[in-house]
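Researcher: Here's a chain I'd like modeled. Treat it as a single chain, no partners, no ligands.
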Amino acid sequence: MIFLIFVGLIIFQRITELVIARKNEAWMKEHGAIEFGQGHYPAMVSIHTAFFIFFILEVNLMEKNLSDYWPVLLALFIFTQAMRIWALASLGRFWNTKIIILPGANVIKRGPYKIIKHPNYLIVAIELIVIPLMFNAYITMAVFTLLNILILSIRIPAEEKALRELTKYESEFSNQGRFVPNLLNKCDN
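Model: Modeled as a single isolated chain. Structure tokens:
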């Protein structure tokens, strides 16, 4: 029962995010935004959908139970959800599951984007480890962590290329790595 409630809440959250993403996509495209990365997007959606299917199957077919470390893992999961909301709220209407860039838009450097370029991708990477570990689903954790690394190795360069082409992204994040704190820029302030 705990498993079904946990998975149900996450799936509900993801569906809600897709609704928000669609509204944001429509608004951005009405204002002249351009979409990039259409070639890899179906693979990304497939990976995230398959994650839930494999997770549910592994837990049910292999009769996995709640981890002994669930309080720590739940705390980490709740932390990632707070970070996820912070990242999405910081981007506002510019947040999307697709790479959609509004030419000439100001680069967002508030919230977690002050410290890290791609906080949402880091959050998802942590979730793909923590969620399966909550129920000892080690196979799901290993397979989808590797698949996530693969898709992000395509996704992040495509997103950064699009941002460089249509915004002042390069100059805004010139001293910051992909997942490295922006310590150099903080020293300048």
